[in-house]
């Protein structure tokens, strides 16, 4: 009985000693490989952990116009912020969903479906983003 207990204790202790040495070997090789990868992704990593730059209303409006202007149905410089997305710009319901997804990607946050359904003009999108992001004048 005492022999089995001693054997288990020694086996557990041996596993505890060999496991960290194995982990440190793996860790060192992982560090080397991440250092190689890190040079390529250093900028994106720092942007994930840093505070975002505050937006101005002009920047938000320009970015919204840029996203909307990317749609084939919309002429880039021939629409205003008060044009109706469906009547004036000719977007359909699928385009509306794609527009919301593009806006989410552009501003890096999710827009709830109930709110996105209320977007009738680019100005509505503008107001939502300005309220959500605390945009400066």
From TrEMBL:
<comment type="similarity">
    <text>Belongs to the acyl carrier protein (ACP) family.</text>
</comment>
<keyword id="KW-0809">Transit peptide</keyword>
<comment type="function">
    <text>Carrier of the growing fatty acid chain in fatty acid biosynthesis.</text>
</comment>
<keyword id="KW-0275">Fatty acid biosynthesis</keyword>
<protein>
    <recommendedName>
        <fullName>Acyl carrier protein</fullName>
    </recommendedName>
</protein>
<dbReference type="GO" id="GO:0000035">
    <property type="term" value="F:acyl binding"/>
</dbReference>
<dbReference type="InterPro" id="IPR003231">
    <property type="entry name" value="ACP"/>
</dbReference>
<keyword id="KW-0596">Phosphopantetheine</keyword>
<dbReference type="GO" id="GO:0000036">
    <property type="term" value="F:acyl carrier activity"/>
</dbReference>
<keyword id="KW-0813">Transport</keyword>
<keyword id="KW-0443">Lipid metabolism</keyword>
<keyword id="KW-0249">Electron transport</keyword>
<keyword id="KW-0496">Mitochondrion</keyword>
<dbReference type="InterPro" id="IPR009081">
    <property type="entry name" value="PP-bd_ACP"/>
</dbReference>
<keyword id="KW-0444">Lipid biosynthesis</keyword>
<dbReference type="GO" id="GO:0005739">
    <property type="term" value="C:mitochondrion"/>
</dbReference>
<feature type="domain" description="Carrier">
    <location>
        <begin position="54"/>
        <end position="133"/>
    </location>
</feature>
<keyword id="KW-0276">Fatty acid metabolism</keyword>
<dbReference type="Pfam" id="PF00550">
    <property type="entry name" value="PP-binding"/>
</dbReference>
<dbReference type="InterPro" id="IPR036736">
    <property type="entry name" value="ACP-like_sf"/>
</dbReference>
<keyword id="KW-0597">Phosphoprotein</keyword>
